[in-house]
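Reopening: 5'(3')-deoxyribonucleotidase still failing for me.
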Amino acid sequence: MKTILVDMDGVLANTNQHFIDYEYKRNSNQILWDNISGLPEAEAFPNFLEDVNSKGFFRTVPVVEKAVEVLKYLNEKYNVLIVSSATEFPNSLTEKAEWLIEHFPFISWKQMIFCGRKDFIIGDIMIDDHPKNLDLFPGQRILFSQPHNTNSIVENSIRVSGWDDVMNIL
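Support: Ran it again with your exact input. Result attached.
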């Protein structure tokens, strides 16, 4: 059975929308998706570091559309592992685990990998929104489109715009 490595932030969790919502609640500043295209997250969102280091941020992120349905299907056909670079932001470790349990109850704790780097995780397919994670991956690479990777090119990868595209590929 093939192993699929699935990123959380920007793939399962709609972190960009969450940053936009946080900014609006903070000071009524409306960030538009078109205005953040091609920008790294730390530039696109003025309070990026404050937000990712605040308690509750990762626990309350909305789910990406169709992520639950498609991942549930893939979990029955593949060995699915959720791989998240969570150690950079210590609050995120517990919050991400709780978030996964709530929104993806079919994912076991044994399928969750929280790490600092993804280049040593072994699998056949990787779905990620950050090119740096895909660049060194030797298997099938799926780049999940997000504003910060609009201008990115990852060799030997397939770019998808959402979970419907993932379903059609896999």
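Residues 3-14+59-169 form a domain with the Rossmann fold fold (CATH 3.40.50.1000). If you still see a failure, please send the error message rather than a screenshot.
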